[in-house]
């Protein structure tokens, strides 16, 4: 019994060692890390690479704060930690310094500065009573020609969530993601007359991902092997706020140059024309941006022709229905980006093995609805009426279906769909039996050709 216990302890120790080694392989932290310099963002590099002004602009920031008042979401009751960092004024001042366009002056804690200057004066007067008065005076404070106002005005949680997972014979894996979004508004105010010179608006998504894997299996009687591995990664909110503020500062600089509000600092806008052109191009692209940093476009044109390869299977009064291959050709006309009218003709075979087999030609008219017409991948649904012609009496039916369409080019798309045909009568094969009308199920793979230019 003691040997058995020692054996179990030994195997547990070995298993823990393997798990520790695996944690390093998967990039999981296992040792403390020393302090490092703060990370930089892509926008930091853009700020530092801006062309320099003719002269720097003295600028003041009294308050640039979190205006959302939002707390971190919690699944276990109240959480009184704020969702947004409270040092956004400091982040903004750092961004102004990195741009090399501005001379930021202390205004957030101006009372501390004035108090310290008063202490200096008092100390000099105390220990230099007989000195010349001119030696006791302090130089005047810089004053700002422009004030920056604004703040973090929105923190939206769970604007996009999703996941994917699968499990087979005790082996499984899953992944989940969540996107939040933070929004910044920044405005420049003239201290001369209080005019708001420029307002800019930027946003940044915050991504959280989770990947998990598990193994669960009985390897012997009363012996179970179970293993799990997982990794969760959350984008730091502070870095997201920093990047959004830096982007706002860059936008303020470029729009100020373009609209000539910086005066002598950028008198000759031709020196900054490349920068302005790049910014204008980015702004044009942003006009079509949707939530999730997606850029939908009008891929689909007014007209389209298509061809499908179909597999059909009848559901009628006989048994042993057999799957057969057929085809469909058609034409679409778009009433608007979402709706189109479709006219098609198909050739198909309905067969009950060793009982009956009939070939049909079937014209159809459908009304189709695309859920996401401006995206490459969109689901769609449709419905309509049709007919089935053969050497026997014509049959009439209704149909509905749906599927997915993916644009591989501006004029070409691939489609996968399923369609359900419902007969108005119960005599497709010439037999009436029971109350259920004859039906058919179709699966199709096809290609669409959109006519015209984007």
UniProtKB/TrEMBL annotation:
SUPFAM superfamilies: OMPA-like. GO terms for cellular component: outer membrane-bounded periplasmic space. Keywords: Cell membrane, Lipoprotein, Membrane, Palmitate, Signal. Residues 1-23 form the signal peptide. PANTHER family: CURLI PRODUCTION ASSEMBLY/TRANSPORT COMPONENT CSGG (PTHR41164), CURLI PRODUCTION ASSEMBLY_TRANSPORT COMPONENT CSGG (PTHR41164:SF1). This is Curli production assembly protein CsgG. The lineage of its organism: Bacteria, Pseudomonadati, Bacteroidota, Flavobacteriia, Flavobacteriales.
């Amino acid at each position: 019994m003691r040997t058995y216990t020692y054996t179990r302890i030994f195997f547990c120790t070995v298993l823990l060692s393997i798990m520790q080694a695996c944690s390093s392989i998967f990039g999981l932290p296992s040792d403390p890390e020393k302090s490092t310099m703060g990370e930089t963002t892509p926008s930091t590099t853009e700020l530092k690479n801006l062309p320099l002004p003719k002269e720097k602009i003295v600028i003041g920031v009294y308050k640039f704060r979190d205006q959302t008042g939002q707390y971190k979401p919690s699944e276990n009751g109240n959480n009184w930690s704020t969702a947004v960092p409270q040092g956004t004024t400091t982040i903004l001042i750092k961004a102004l310094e990195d741009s090399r366009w501005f001379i930021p002056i202390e205004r957030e804690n101006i009372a501390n500065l004035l108090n310290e200057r008063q202490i200096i004066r008092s100390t000099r007067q105390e220990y230099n009573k007989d000195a010349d008065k001119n030696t006791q005076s302090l130089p005047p404070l810089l004053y700002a020609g422009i004030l920056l106002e604004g703040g973090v005005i929105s923190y939206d949680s769970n604007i996009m969530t999703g996941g994917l997972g699968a499990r087979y014979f005790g082996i499984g894996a899953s992944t989940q993601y969540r996107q939040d979004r933070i929004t910044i508004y920044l405005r420049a105010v003239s201290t001369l007359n209080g005019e708001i010179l420029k307002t800019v608006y930027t946003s940044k998504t915050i991504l959280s991902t989770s990947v998990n894997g598990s193994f669960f299996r009985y390897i012997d009687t009363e012996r179970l092997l179970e293993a799990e591995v997982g990794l969760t990664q959350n984008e730091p909110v502070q870095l997201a706020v920093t990047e959004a503020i830096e982007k706002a500062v860059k936008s303020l600089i470029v729009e100020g140059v373009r609209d000539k509000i910086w005066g002598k600092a950028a008198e000759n806008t031709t020196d900054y024309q490349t920068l302005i052109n790049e910014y204008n191009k980015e702004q044009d692209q942003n006009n079509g941006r949707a939530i999730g940093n997606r850029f939908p476009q009008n891929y689909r044109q007014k007209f389209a022709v298509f061809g499908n390869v179909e597999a059909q299977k009848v559901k009628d009064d006989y048994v042993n229905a057999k799957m057969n291959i057929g085809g469909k050709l058609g034409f679409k006309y778009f009433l608007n980006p979402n709706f189109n009218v479709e006219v098609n003709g198909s050739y198909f075979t309905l067969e009950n093995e060793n009982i009956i087999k009939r070939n049909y030609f079937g014209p159809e008219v459908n009304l189709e609805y695309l859920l996401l017409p401006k995206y490459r991948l969109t689901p769609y649904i449709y419905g309509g009426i049709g007919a089935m012609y053969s050497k026997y009496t014509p049959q009439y039916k209704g149909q509905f279906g749906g599927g997915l369409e993916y644009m591989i080019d501006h004029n070409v798309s691939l489609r996968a769909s399923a369609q359900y045909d419902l007969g108005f009568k119960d005599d497709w094969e010439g037999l009436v039996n029971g109350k259920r009308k004859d039906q058919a199920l179709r699966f199709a793979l096809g290609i669409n050709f959109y006519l015209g230019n984007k």
